[in-house]
Amino acid sequence: MNQSCEACGHSNAGGSRFCSSCGRPMSSVEEASTEALESLGDSPESVDFQTPSTGAALVVASGHQAGTRYAITSELMTVGRHPDSDIFLDDITVSRRHVELSTSNTGYMIRDVGSLNGTYLNGQRLEDSEVSLTNGDELQIGKFKLLYLVSSSS
Fold this sequence. Notes:
By secondary structure, this protein is an all-beta fold.
């Protein structure tokens, strides 16, 4: 069903929002506004940041996987978007092979392995070298913020 423009009288296809001749709005009816979405409870306040009972872990601090804990159990662990990664972070902002965690005499070291978006440790971008992790460090890998937590009995 065609609609006539109130301003110029041009016949427009039904459902048109604007006149194809003069560009004026076809209807003065206001569109529904966008509604705010409810929080899904993944705010940092709702995440359990307890230190692991043994060893070390990475805990997702924010985002759709908030609260997810990844135990660090091997001498070398990979983190990335590749499904074979030891810690799989499924988001386009994470490189397929983003970082590696490896053991040292003092604990774990982290090394960015050529990620596109970089890796941040406590707000500072990691360069090409390995950096030692300490309890409570905040990592940013893509859009994921993770806390590095170590057991006091380790």
